[in-house]
Every structure is written in structure tokens, then in C-alpha cells.
Amino acid sequence: MSQTLPCGAAAAPSGAPSLALDLTIATRESRLALWQAEHVRACLQALGHRVRLLGMTTRGDQILDRALSKVGGKGLFVKELEVAMDEGRADLAVHSLKDVPMELPEGFRLACVMEREDPRDAWVSPHGDGPQDLPAGAVIGTSSLRRVVLLREALARLGRDDVRIEPLRGNLDTRLRKLDEGQCHAIVLAAAGLRRLGLQARIRRVFEPTEMLPAAGQGALGIEIRAERADVAAALAPLGHWPTWAAVAAERAVSRALGGSCSVPLAAHATWVGPAPSGPGSPARLRIEAAWAESDAVLPLLRAVVEAEVADLASAEAAGQRVAHGLIAQGARIVAAG
Ligand SMILES: NCc1[nH]cc(CCC(=O)O)c1CC(=O)O
């Protein structure tokens, strides 16, 4: 009988792997990061490996007063974890894929991508189920440029030019506290993060991707290793989820082709049309949608959609690049990361 792991993958029928490893997971210390690292630990332990966590504070966790897009973005959350792996203090790092730069530094790679949680954004507010229910002159708190431009579009559709959007930073608990203290009337957060922390009761409504297109990789966990660690890659292989991996590879390719910067609002979301593929080499149809805007977004957003037959990471990435070129043809600019 094959056992099912906490991550949903099937364990080897024999239980313990032929080679049990001692593994250290480098992790940030936010409640969400720790939950994610514990989740991977449980999966690896169920496979017979011995696993410990190495908690660390990253520069991104320390800078709380400025918008992330202004201080160097995604790399700030992963650098310290990579140094720990370089120095042999850790073997792997678990990331929210949304926070992982499009290009990993030389010597590192993604060993696997796990099955995606809900990729959608959630509306959290004591005032109702969406922007239409906000009181006059209300404030929505978010620092994500993507959420800002998509919310502006929604507010314009509703004729709600009285509603303001103001920057709000901090981890999930901090943002919820600021909402509860009345610093704003509503916030928009990833449904996945709220669910992982058992905070799903705070969700008033989940936006369909047609209303608010998710960020590339939202809801998916990626596991990073030193490129040469084939032993760690083999241990992680059962945790991988191919349909998620191929979909997020396409989403990340959209962002990479546009320069990979997080100082420009970009949404990219891929879904399988019909049955999801069983593994690499089995072709399936992927629909990739993206939206782009200038960072000082004057409406409207540019949008592009591509449907393509995808059989491996290369074809998924090629499809994502076609979406990016669709946006560039309409006037999107390539903005370098940094
Ligand atoms: N940028 C912070 C971040 N990184 C990942 C998540 C949520 C979980 C996920 O997308 O996997 C969040 C919080 C949020 O955007 O509300």
C-alpha cells in the first residue's frame, strides 16, 4: 500500500527511501515562512529523512517603512538563505514562489515546485464583500503595485473615485492588525497565506482571476537548492507537483521576458484547459493570461492571453514569452530587475 504524504504526494511503497538524508531547511521567521518550512519538513520526514529548521531574519524582513518595490524587491527575502546554503549551514530553502526573483543567482536552482494552494486574492474588511461596500472616502491598504492598479480599475468601473489606496506593509499578522486598528477599511491579501495560517475566517470574498488577476507564482511553494546537490534534488522529487510547476514556469517566463522587475505592476496567471498533465512529456493545454501597467499607472492596463500545448518546462516558458511579447506589442516596456 502506498502511503500519502502530508503534501499529497505518494510515498514509496517501502516507506523509507533507500538513502535517508540529514537535511537543514533555511527559513525566514515570519509565521507564514515557518508554516511553509514546517510543511516541507513534515513531507520529508514522512519519506524517512531527518530534518531541522534554521530560522533567519532577512533584510526584507527588517525594512518595513518603505515599499519593497523601492528598496530592491524580491531578492531581499532570499539572499541570506542562499548564503546559509553556500556556507553549508543549510541544504534547502522553502519560498513562496511569488517572492523568488525570476533569475536565481549562479549556482542555485529550483529543485521542485509543490502543489499550488488557492492562487487568488482575498478581500478582508469589516465593511462588506468588496470595494462596492466601502463607506464614502474609505482607504484600502496595499503595497503591491499589481493590486493597486487592479483595484484602481475596479474602483473606476464602480465610479468610486472617493476611495483611496494607501501603502501598507508588514507580514500578514501586522497587516491584519493595522486593519483591525482602523488604519484602513479593507486590505487585499493572498488567500493562500491566510488559509495556511488558519485565518480563512477573515476572508470576506475571494476575487475570481477575471476580477483580480493573480501574481506569477502566487500560492505555490518553490524549493531552492545549490545546483550541484543532486542528493537533495532526489530527496525532494516526490514533493514536486508537475501541473503546478509547468503553470508557474509559464507565469514566471512572462515576468522574466519583461525584465523581471517588481517595480512595475504585473499579473500573470496560468490554468489548464481540460485535464492537467500527468507529468513532463504528456502534453496538455495551458491558458496564460497577463496584465501589465506603467508603475504610475494611468488606466487602462494592457492585457494578453495565450493558449498553448505544453509538454515540458521549455514549452511552458516559450508560451509565457509569447504572452510577454503580446504585451510588448501593445506598448509594455522591459524594465530590468533591481
Ligand atoms: N509578498 C508577501 C507574500 N508572499 C507570499 C504570500 C502569500 C502566499 C503565497 O502567495 O504563496 C504573501 C502575502 C500576500 O501576498 O498576501
Automatic annotation (TrEMBL):
Keywords from the UniProt entry: Porphyrin biosynthesis, Transferase
Residue numbers of S-(dipyrrolylmethanemethyl)cysteine PTMs: C262
EC numbers for this chain: 2.5.1.61
Keyword Transferase recorded: yes
Organism annotation: Tepidimonas fonticaldi
Catalytic activity: 4 porphobilinogen + H2O = hydroxymethylbilane + 4 NH4(+)
Entry GO terms, CC: cytoplasm
Gene3D superfamilies: Periplasmic binding protein-like II, Porphobilinogen deaminase, C-terminal domain
Functional summary from the UniProt entry: Tetrapolymerization of the monopyrrole PBG into the hydroxymethylbilane pre-uroporphyrinogen in several discrete steps.
Name the UniProt record assigns to this protein: Porphobilinogen deaminase
UniProt-listed SUPFAM superfamilies: Periplasmic binding protein-like II (SSF53850), Porphobilinogen deaminase (hydroxymethylbilane synthase), C-terminal domain (SSF54782)
